[in-house]
Design brief:
The complex is a heterodimer of chains A (about 575) and B (about 280). Chain A has about 575 residues and is of the alpha/beta class. Helices cover about 40% and strands about 20% of the residues of chain A. Chain A has 19 helices and 22 strands. Chain A has an eight-stranded mixed sheet with strand order 6-5-4-1-3-2-14-7, with helices on both faces. Chain A has a seven-stranded mixed sheet with strand order 9-8-10-11-13-12-19, sandwiched between helices. With about 280 residues, chain B is an alpha/beta fold. In chain B, helix 6 (about 175-190) links the parallel strand 5 and strand 6. The longest helix of chain B has 16 residues, at about 20-35. Classes of the chains: A alpha/beta (about 575), B alpha/beta (about 280).
Chain lengths: ~575, ~280
C-alpha cells in the first residue's frame, strides 16, 4: 500500500506527538514520505490528543479523513475517530482501557498495563509497547522498530525494547507494508525547517517569548545555541523581544524573533521602529485561530492583512508564507537575507499546520538560497548611517568605528541620524525608504515567488498560500487542475502571478479564513478570483474536505461558479 | 579629549534652566575623561527612550540608538549581549522607564546586565506639557489630574534594590560635580547601575527651591549592605516636601551578570552547512 494513514490517540500527557513521530520514523525507514498532523487542545494533562500520520510513496502535505489503522490508548479515541474507519481498517487498543465490543473492524487488544507491570517498566513506556504491536500489525520488521527505538529513545532502551517486543509478540498480522525503493529522509516540523533555514543564512541571535505555535522554534534554538553559536534570549515580553532584535541588529548581529498573533500585536510599535530606524529583523509569525486568544493550538490564515499593514507609518517589508518544511527552509534563509540586504523587517508567515506539522524533508530539493552580504560601509570619509544611495540602502557600520559615530533614530532624521522636523528631509527620507522597497521588489524578480503545480494547461486553477499548498496540489491531481501558490505576499509578485494566470479562466481561491484575504490582496492588483473555498474552524482542509468542496462547485468544469462556496462548518 | 568635541550641530530645544543641561554637561565631561583612560569613545553606545531626556543623544557626538518611549533598556540589553566590549549607557525618563517601560527596568535590574541607566527623574511629563508621572507626589495637580493625583509615587531606588540592581545612586541637577562622580562610578561599575537624577523641569514642576533645601550628600554609608541601603533609600519616598532627601551612592555590590553568562555563545557562522547536514541525520 503506497498511501497509508495511522491515527494514534490518547489523553494529553500520553506523549501522542512523540508516538506519532515514532510511527513516522518507522515508515520513513521503509522509504515512505511522511506528513503528520498533530491535534491537541490547549492544556497540559487530560483532553484528547491525536497524531494522524500519513505515509505515501509521493511527497505529501495533507491528510485523509479516513484511516487504515487506529491506535487507541483510551476509549475516547475510539468514540471520536470510529467514523474514520473503513471496513478494511484495523484497530489496536489498550485492552485495559478500551471496550472492544463497539469495534466492528478487525482489531487486537494489548494488555499494556499488565505488560508494563510485569516488565517493571514506567507508565511512559506504554507507547513503546503499543507501537511494538503496531509494527506486527502492519508488517514492519522487528529490527526496524529496534533501530528506531535505539536511535530516538535511547533512555532506558532495554526496558523500552522489552515492552515493545511483548506488544509485538502479542499482536496479530494484518497487512504488510512494503519497503519502497527510496532513501529515508529527515522528518521535521516547519518550525524546525524555519530554524535551519535561518541558521543556514547566518542567524546569530534568536529572541522570543513563548507562544503557540511558534514556541518550538525557541526551544530548538535554545537547544542548538551552543552548536551553532546563537545567542538565544527569552525576555519579559514580545515588546522587549522586538526591541532586543533591533539592539542586536544595531550591533551587527543577525537576529530573528518568533511569535503568534497576540504576541505580534505587542511587537507592532517595535516593527514600526524597525521601519523607521531601518533595522533588519526577521519575524516568524505562526498564525493560529483568532481573534484574541482564539483557539491557541489550532490553525488559521487570518493574519495576512494584519502582517501586511502592521505598524504606524509607511515602510517597506518582506512577507513570505512557506507551504511546507522545504519552503520553510529555503524561504527563511531568503527572509534573513532580504532583511539585511535591504534593512527591512522580513516576515516568515507560517501557520499551525506548517509550524507543527511533520514533513519529509529533502535538503537537495529545498535548494540553497542565494545569500549576499549586507552592504557595508567602505570606511571612506565620515560615516552617515542614513546616507542616500541609488537603491535607498545605506551602507551599514557597527560600533566601534574609530573616529566615527553611528546614530540610529526612531524620529524622522537626517542622513547622520540626527532628529529633524524639516519638511524636505522628511519627504526625502520617506522616498529613500520606499526606494528600498522598490529595489527589493526588483531583486525578488529573480526568485520563484509564485509557484505553479498540477496541470499547467488547465483553464481552472486553485489559488493558495501557506499550508494549503499540500492539499491543493493533491486535490488538483484528481481533477487535472492547475495550482498557483503565492509564496511571497509582499512585495506583491504581480508579474509572476499574472504570468501564472495565463490561460486560466476560472480561479478558485482556497484559504483558511472567513474573508478570503489573499483574494482581497489580489483584487488590489486587479486579479479576480471566481470562487472561494474557505475553512475557518481551526482545522486544516483534509483532502476529502477539499475534494468535496471542489465537487460541489463543479471545479471539473470550466464554468465559473462565482459563488462563495464551501464554508465548511466545524 | 575635550568635552566640547562631543557636541553635535543639533540645536538644543530644552527650556532655559532645564536640569537636562546639567546631565548633558556631566556626561560629556565623564565620557571625555574616560576616553583618555582606556575607555575609547567609539566603544560607547548611548540609548534613549522618548521624552525631553532623550534629546540628549542628538546633542552628543557619540554612537546612539534613539529608541521609542519606554524601550531604551531592551535595545541596550541586546547591544551589550551582542558586543560585551561596548559601554552601553541608557537615558530614560520617569514616565519612560517607570510607566511605559517598567517591566524592562525591573528585568534589566533582575538580569544585572552590565549597562547604566540614568533616570532623568523630573516627576512630570514635560514633552506632553505637564501630566503626573509615577514619581509625582500624591496630590500633584497636572493636566490629567486637575484635582490632584490620587496615587502615591513609586520610590525608584527602592524598586531597583528589590529587583536586583547592583549599583544604585541618586544625584541632583544642581550638583554637577556629584553627578560627574556618580556617572563615572556607575559607568565603571560591572553590573546594572541605576542613577536616579532629580532633574528639575522648570516649566511644569520646578522643585529647585525644595530640593536645594532638602537634599544632602550621604557620607560614610556601607554601600555593600542591602539593609543599610534600603534604610537610606526609604528615608524619603518622593511623597514629602518636608523630609531630607539623601544624595550619593546607596548600593554597590558585585553580583553575577547576564552578559557574562552569554560569552560562551559567540556567533560562529563558519562550518554551518556541514553542521546542519550532520544534525539532519538526527531527524531520520
Amino acid at each position: 500500500m503506497e498511501d497509508f494513514s495511522t491515527l494514534i490517540g490518547g489523553v494529553a500527557g500520553d506523549g501522542i506527538n512523540e508516538a506519532g513521530l515514532t510511527v513516522a520514523w518507522l515508515f520513513n525507514r521503509l522509504g515512505y514520505r511522511i506528513y503528520m498532523y498533530y491535534d491537541y487542545p490547549s492544556l497540559i494533562r487530560g483532553g484528547h490528543n491525536y497524531s494522524l500520520v500519513r505515509a505515501s510513496g509521493q511527497k505529501i502535505g495533507a491528510h485523509h479523513d479516513q484511516i487504515d489503522v487506529l491506535i487507541a490508548l483510551n476509549q475516547e479515541t475510539v468514540e471520536k475517530h470510529k467514523d474514520r474507519l473503513k471496513d478494511s481498517s484495523f484497530v489496536i487498543y489498550d485492552a485495559e482501557k478500551v471496550k472492544a465490543d463497539g469495534i466492528l473492524q478487525k482489531s487486537c487488544g494489548i494488555p499494556v498495563t499488565r505488560i508494563l507491570l510485569e516488565a517493571g517498566a514506567l507508565p511512559v513506556m506504554k507507547n513503546s509497547c503499543i507501537l511494538g504491536a503496531f509494527c506486527k500489525v502492519v508488517g514492519i520488521d522487528w529490527l526496524v522498530l529496534e533501530d528506531v527505538l535505539k536511535k530516538h529513545i535511547p533512555k532506558m532502551l532495554e526496558q523500552n525494547l522489552n515492552v515493545a517486543r511483548r506488544g509485538y509478540d502479542l499482536a496479530e498480522d494484518f497487512c504488510h507494508m512494503d519497503k519502497l525503493n527510496q532513501e529515508p529522509q529527515p522528518i521535521m516540523t516547519g518550525n524546525q525547517a524555519i530554524s535551519f533555514g535561518l541558521i543556514k543564512a547566518g542567524l546569530e541571535a534568536y529572541v522570543a517569548y513563548p507562544m503557540t505555535p511558534s514556541s518550538s522554534i525557541l526551544d530548538f534554538m535554545a537547544k542548538s545555541a551552543e552548536k551553532f553559536g546563537i545567542k538565544v534570549v527569552h525576555p519579559e515580553s514580545e515588546i522587549a523581544v522586538m526591541l532586543m532584535a533591533q539592539g542586536f541588529a544595531y550591533a551587527g548581529v543577525k537576529a530573528a524573533v518568533g511569535t503568534s498573533g497576540g504576541g505580534f500585536c505587542l511587537m507592532t510599535e517595535g516593527l514600526s521602529l524597525a521601519g523607521m530606524a531601518e533595522m533588519p529583523v526577521v519575524i516568524v509569525m505562526a498564525q493560529r485561530t483568532g481573534p484574541s486568544t482564539g483557539l491557541p493550538t489550532y490553525t488559521a490564515q487570518g493574519d495576512l492583512h494584519f502582517i501586511l499593514n502592521a505598524g504606524q507609518g509607511e515602510f517597506p517589508r518582506f512577507v513570505v508564507a512557506p507551504g511546507d518544511a522545504i519552503d520553510a527552509y529555503y524561504w527563511s534563509a531568503v527572509a534573513l537575507n532580504m532583511a539585511w540586504k535591504f534593512q527591512v523587517p522580513a516576515f516568515v508567515l507560517s501557520d499551525k499546520i506548517v509550524s507543527e506539522g511533520q514533513y519529509s524533508f529533502d535538503l537537495r530539493a529545498a535548494g540553497d538560497a542565494k545569500l549576499a552580504s549586507p552592504v557595508l560601509w567602505d570606511g571612506q570619509g565620515s560615516y552617515n548611517r542614513y546616507s542616500y544611495t541609488d537603491t535607498g540602502v545605506s551602507p551599514l557600520a557597527y560600533p566601534p568605528q574609530k573616529g566615527q559615530v553611528i546614530k540610529s533614530d526612531s524620529y524622522t532624521h537626517d542622513n547622520a541620524g540626527i532628529t529633524t522636523e524639516d519638511p524636505q528631509i522628511t519627504r526625502e527620507m520617506s522616498d529613500k525608504r520606499q526606494l528600498k522597497g522598490q529595489s527589493m521588489a526588483r531583486d525578488l524578480e529573480g526568485y520563484e515567488t509564485v509557484k505553479v503545480f498540477g496541470d499547467e494547461k488547465s483553464k481552472t486553477a486553485l489559488l493558495c498560500w501557506g499550508s494549503n499548498k499540500g492539499v491543493c496540489m493533491e486535490a488538483s491531481q484528481k481533477l487535472g487542475l492547475k495550482v498557483i501558490q503565492v509564496l511571497v505576499l509582499w512585495p506583491f509578485p504581480e508579474k509572476r502571478l499574472t504570468d501564472a494566470l495565463q490561460g486560466v479562466e476560472r480561479l478558485i481561491d482556497v484559504e483558511c479564513n472567513s474573508t478570503a484575504q489573499l483574494a482581497r490582496l489580489c483584487s488590489i492588483f486587479g486579479i479576480k478570483t471566481h470562487d472561494r473555498i474557505l475553512k475557518y474552524d481551526g482545522r486544516p482542509f483534509s483532502l476529502d474536505d477539499l475534494n468535496f468542496e471542489l465537487d460541489r462547485i463543479g471545479a471539473g468544469s470550466i464554468q465559473a461558479g462565482n459563488i462563495e462556496a464551501g464554508r465548511i462548518e466545524a | 579629549m575635550n568635552p566640547k568635541d562631543l557636541n553635535t550641530p543639533a540645536k538644543s530645544t530644552w527650556c532655559p534652566g532645564c536640569g537636562n543641561f546639567s546631565i548633558l554637561s556631566a556626561m560629556r565631561t565623564v565620557l571625555a575623561e574616560l576616553d583618555g583612560e582606556g575607555f575609547p569613545i567609539e566603544k560607547v553606545v548611548l540609548v534613549a527612550g522618548i521624552g525631553c531626556h532623550a534629546k540628549i543623544v542628538d546633542y552628543m557626538n557619540v554612537n546612539s540608538f534613539y529608541s521609542i518611549h519606554g524601550r531604551a533598556l531592551p535595545v541596550a540589553t541586546a547591544i551589550k549581549l551582542a558586543n560585551p566590549d561596548l559601554k552601553v549607557i541608557c537615558f530614560s525618563g520617569d514616565g519612560d522607564s517607570l510607566a511605559e517601560g517598567l517591566d524592562h527596568l525591573i528585568f534589566a535590574a533582575k538580569r544585572n546586565i552590565d549597562i547604566t541607566l540614568i533616570l532623568h527623574d523630573n516627576r512630570v511629563y514635560g514633552l506632553t506639557t505637564g501630566q503626573y508621572t509615577p514619581t509625582s507626589p500624591l496630590g500633584f495637580k497636572g493636566k490629567s489630574t486637575p484635582a490632584g493625583s490620587k496615587e502615591r509615587p513609586l520610590n525608584p531606588p527602592d524598586l531597583m534594590l528589590a529587583s536586583g540592581a547592583s549599583f544604585i545612586a541618586r544625584g541632583y541637577t544642581h550638583g554637577i560635580e556629584q553627578l560627574q562622580k556618580l556617572f563615572r562610578e556607575a559607568i565603571l561599575h560591572k553590573g546594572f547601575s541605576f542613577v536616579d537624577v532629580l532633574q528639575v523641569c522648570v516649566s511644569y514642576f520646578n522643585m529647585y527651591e525644595s530640593y536645594n533645601k532638602m537634599t544632602y550628600e550621604i557620607q560614610g554609608n556601607n554601600t555593600g549592605s542591602f539593609e543599610e541601603a534600603q534604610k537610606i533609600i526609604r528615608s524619603w519616598s518622593y511623597d514629602s516636601l518636608e523630609k531630607p532627601i539623601p544624595l550619593g551612592k546607596f548600593y554597590d555590590i558585585d553580583a553575577p551578570r547576564l552578559d557574562q553568562a552569554f560569552l560562551e555563545f559567540k556567533p560562529n557562522p563558519a562550518g554551518r552547512d556541514a553542521k546542519i547536514k550532520a544534525t539532519l541525520e538526527d531527524f531520520i
